[in-house]
């Protein structure tokens, strides 16, 4: 039976207390040397027959063996650093380090065309190519023919925004993960928050860079975001997006064949931000209708949350429920 959507509310005192303790443990990132970070690179072969590299960072506490692995996929205009933003003004913003302290291994990857991964021609990198690359990474992690030399028995795909689209496509096409978490992405059509003239200008280049003012307006609820974080985002976290990936996903809310959402059979957690202009919480009642092949869908609405969940002051309202859902679905890590 599908789970009705619910808001994450501040009266969950035990949850919030646990979140506060975990967040304090993360202040600052420099004071948590027990979280280890390993650079990894996965070779993948795409449809043109060429071999490319997908780069990533593995975050773990003490050891990554015998742990549930979260594979985190960033959204448009970001790379793996979306999942590992630094502590700012005493507040932690690293999802990866937070989850590592809760005994997960977290692999935050750079999608093809972003970060330290290979950068093919911008129009070559479609959703299908990006998805194939992620599939090959996950397939290698199920065996021991991977840069870590270790087999992971439990894998959760975690996406943000465009990364959620990629994760959904991978899960629909290949079924690689045991569970899927999407954040900042929904399948209910809403008006595009991108002005048509801005979109037309952006698509003139094979690699797209969102202007800082557009990112600030689209990605944040300014009442619950530190201006220093927004400035850091535009100075340090900003990355480019392949045009082919952007154009190949544009119709996804209207056509389930784009993301293959109707072919996902695993348990799914969908988190929507109440004030997210890209995937608003007001669509929650209709969201689970898109997931027609799984009976295990939970939709959560995060109060007063903008698009970039990890970079808001109340980011724990996303993080703790994700942990709770994974633990309830797959068992405590």
Automatic annotation (TrEMBL):
The reply on keyword Hydrolase is yes
The cross-references to InterPro entries, in alphabetical order and at most eight, read: AB_hydrolase_1, AB_hydrolase_fold
Keyword Chloroplast included in the entry's annotation: no
> What does the record list as coiled-coil region(s)?
none
According to the UniProt entry, its GO molecular function terms are: carboxylesterase activity
| N-terminal signal peptide | 1-22
Keywords, ordered alphabetically: Hydrolase, Signal
| Taxonomy, superkingdom | Bacteria
Q: Where are the transmembrane segments?
A: none
List each copy of the AB hydrolase-1 domain by range.
71-311
Mind telling me which Pfam families this protein's record contains? Abhydrolase_6 (PF12697)
What are its E.C. numbers? 3.1.1.1
Name the Gene3D superfamilies on file.
Answer: alpha/beta hydrolase
Q: What is this protein called?
A: Carboxylesterase
